[in-house]
Design goal:
This protein has 39 helices and three strands. By secondary structure, it is mainly α. Strands 2-1-3 form a three-stranded antiparallel sheet. The two termini are 67 Å apart. One of its GO terms (molecular function) is RNA binding. It comes from Rubroshorea leprosula. Belongs to the PPR family. PCMP-H subfamily.
Length: 716
């Protein structure tokens, strides 16, 4: 609420403005012109015309028109000046209830409730409008107790009208709203469409309930206008009942109710994967809404287009469709739409998201904190940190370097790009750390296998940890093999912090135990879980069984994984590898055949490395790279060099019907080995100055490549 404005009535009375020479206009024509100017947003012109007119034009209706315009346009300065003028030139105004109501409404709408209340208290006579405009002003500022006080006083003087009830309800929560609902029922005001719509909106804002009450009010209405339908739609969105919102919109369309921009925004926003609708069905309905928006012309509304972009993005729609929608609005693109586009591409095509951000800057648009956090999310999916550095420079330039949300995004982006030092620098320079800041830094340490640093940072936390904090800590312990520390942290969650472990925490614990060969303990932990284990937990156990040759337990984990996530190739590949390691090549072949029959495809292993400000991608066999032969030659020499100091290729997972020499050749052509050889060939052009070779992968590194890299590091 704006700062109260205390104005002396006596001082106002001394204000004087002499009118200019009179005109020959009729009063009715003059009033029409004032209304035309003020309704078109030309309030200054309307007031200038009014002040220059002779006194015969300064009557109740002209004053009322101008005060109403000042209230609508929130023009307090013009309203105060007009009030000065009226007190000086319209002596009967203190006794004019209608005009005083307009003045109270102007001050209330502009947020100066103290002065509005002062005028209200000084009125010699009040009517229902006097009470209603003041209640509306307090409701607009969310001052519920004052609304109730005024409503109680109003009941002693006059019968509240539908607008008074609607105003009070607009500021109420669930508990207070039910009391007003009971009063409306007692006074038979619930039959009013305005009161009913306010009740639906009030119940619709309640996250913990309200659906039954809202539906009861909606279905009992004798007449439902468009606001009624839209309010019900908004409620379904709050309750995360997307399917109900879709059904309601379908009924609207079938009954010929019509729709507006708010309707489309409500139903489009309900098409979220978390709102209980199958993704395929949501995507189909989103396409239908897109067609309807095109047909009705609402697609030109920037809010509708932005909502469609977000819906397509959330539902995994085709990025080309999203881009076409964006290009079709080239004349009215704002920062919200650009940010929506960047968000849509951030995960699926981070390079395109970064390009869109660069284009946004060329269009002279000013990115906000949400834009920066979205593009930094895209940067976290790129191989190199230079994109994050470029965005960071724009963050500083735009003055968002003190923004906590943006700094949290920077910590995450730098860590994902491989630069833990830059993540720590951002964290250390932050003036304020919220819970996300601490969790982001803990995750960064865990990602880089720095469990000691993560545990030390956790001991320095000055905010209460949440479940995500312990996922980060347990993950760090898992990557570093700190079993006992991980067990202590897991036990302390409920004992010391009152946090009940969830699936993510159990998955981390299974991984911690399994990585160190304690697979039986991991299985016992799964058996004790208070909820059903998910595919992540079974895949963690399966990976441990693969490492330690636990064939029988692996069969169970693989079966569970295939049951819960039939499209995941991990259950087939790991079992095949386990059989190969044990020499059961026939069983391994059957697993591969089963995988082919189920049409499950293994994600190809890819590696990326930055050389000379250019990112190079490698696949197994190196067929994609133009310098393939030169890379093979350098890699062959490197292998011979490492053999001399103890490297022995691990061929246990290679195809059993291939000669040993060919098995080794298959291993040597893994994507990460090719990337390493290429990096050594171009050591002088490495982005990191030749001291560190940073290779990014999309899948876990194999045992042989891990040994190869470790020995290679030791000899340099």
């Amino acid at each position: 609420m704006a700062r109260p404005c205390y104005i002396s009535i006596r001082r106002l009375s001394s204000y004087n403005l002499l009118p200019l020479p009179s005109t020959t206009q009729e009063p009715a024509d003059f009033l029409t012109k004032l209304r035309f100017l003020s309704s078109r947003g030309h309030l200054q012109e309307a007031l200038s015309l009014f002040y220059s007119a002779p006194s015969q034009f300064h009557y109740q209706q002209t004053y009322a028109t101008l005060f109403h315009a000042c209230a609508q346009q929130r023009q307090l300065n013009h309203g105060v000046k007009l009030h000065h003028f009226m007190l000086a030139h319209y002596p009967s105004c203190p006794h004019d209830v209608i005009l005083t109501n307009h003045v109270i409404n102007m001050y209330a709408k502009c947020g100066h409730l103290n002065f509005a209340n002062q005028l209200f208290d000084e009125m010699p006579e009040r009517n229902v409008v006097s009470w209603t405009v003041l209640i509306s002003g307090y409701a607009q500022c969310g001052m519920v107790e004052d609304c109730f006080r005024l409503l109680s006083g109003m009941l002693g003087e006059c019968r509240p009208n539908e607008y008074a009830f609607a105003s009070v309800l607009s500021s109420c929560g669930y508990g207070q709203g039910t009391q007003v609902h009971a009063l409306a029922l007692k006074m038979a005001m619930d039959a009013s469409v305005y009161v009913a719509n306010a009740l639906i909106t009030m119940y619709g804002k309640s996250h913990e309930g309200g659906k039954v009450e809202a539906l009861t009010v909606f279905e009992s209405m004798l007449f439902q206008n468009l606001v009624s339908w839209n309010s019900m739609m908004a409620g379904f969105q709050v309750w995360k009942l997307g399917l109900d919102a879709v059904r309601l919109f379908t009924k609207m369309h079938r009954d010929g109710v019509g729709f507006d921009r708010a309707t489309l925004l409500g139903v489009i926003s309900s098409l979220c994967p978390r709102n209980g609708i199958a993704v395929e069905s949501s995507l189909k309905f989103c396409l239908q809404l897109h067609c309807l928006a095109l047909k009705s012309g609402f697609i030109s509304e920037i809010e509708v287009a932005t909502a469609l972009v977000k819906a397509y993005s959330d539902l995994g729609g085709d990025v080309s469709d999203i881009y076409q929608l964006f290009l079709g609005l080239s004349s009215c693109q704002d920062i919200v739409l650009w940010t929506g586009m960047i968000t849509a591409f951030a995960e699926r095509d981070p390079v395109e998201a970064f390009f869109l951000f660069c284009q946004l800057l060329r269009e002279d648009l000013d990115p906000d904190w949400y834009t920066f956090s979205s593009v930094l999310k895209a940067c976290s999916g790129l191989v190199t940190e230079w994109c994050a550095l470029a965005v960071h420079s724009q963050v500083i330039k735009a003055g968002f370097d003190d923004d906590t949300v943006v700094n949290n995004a920077l910590i995450h982006a730098y860590a994902r790009c491989g630069s833990i030092a830059l993540s720590k620098q951002v964290f250390d320079e932050m003036a304020f750390h919220d819970l996300v800041s601490w969790n982001s830094m803990l995750k960064a340490y865990g990602l880089h296998g720095l469990a000691g640093e993560a545990l030390q940072l956790f001991s320095q936390m000055d905010v209460k940890p949440d479940p995500a904090t312990f996922v980060a800590l347990l993950s760090a312990c898992s990557h570093s093999g700190l079993v006992e520390e991980g067990i202590k942290i897991f036990d302390s969650m409920s004992e010391n912090h009152g946090i009940v472990p969830q699936l993510d925490h159990y998955a981390c614990m299974v991984d911690i135990l399994g990585r160190t060969g304690r697979t039986i303990e991991a299985k016992e932990l799964i058996n004790r879980m208070p909820m059903q284990p998910d595919s992540v937990i079974w895949s963690a156990l399966l990976g441990s069984c693969r490492k330690y040759g636990e064939t029988q337990l692996a069969k169970l984990a693989s079966a569970k994984l295939k049951e819960l996530d039939p499209e995941n190739s991990l259950g087939y590949v790991q079992m095949s590898n386990i059989y190969c390691s044990g020499g059961s090549f026939g069983e391994a072949g059957l697993i591969r055949k089963e995988m082919d029959g189920s049409r499950v495809r293994k994600e190809p292993g890819l590696s990326w490395i930055e050389i000379g400000n250019m990112v190079h991608e490698f696949a197994s066999g190196g067929r994609r790279h133009p310098q393939r032969e030169a890379i093979f030659t350098r890699l062959k020499a490197l292998v011979e060099q490492l053999r001399e100091i103890g490297y022995v290729p691990d061929t246990t997972l290679a195809l059993h019907d291939v000669e040993e020499e060919h098995k080794e050749e298959q291993l040597f052509h893994h994507s990460e080995k090719l990337a390493l050889a290429f990096a050594i060939m171009n050591e002088g052009s490495l982005h990191c100055g030749g001291h560190v070779i940073r290779i990014m992968k999309n899948v876990r590194i194999c045992v042989d490549c891990h040994n190869f890299m470790r020995i290679c590091k030791s000899c340099n």
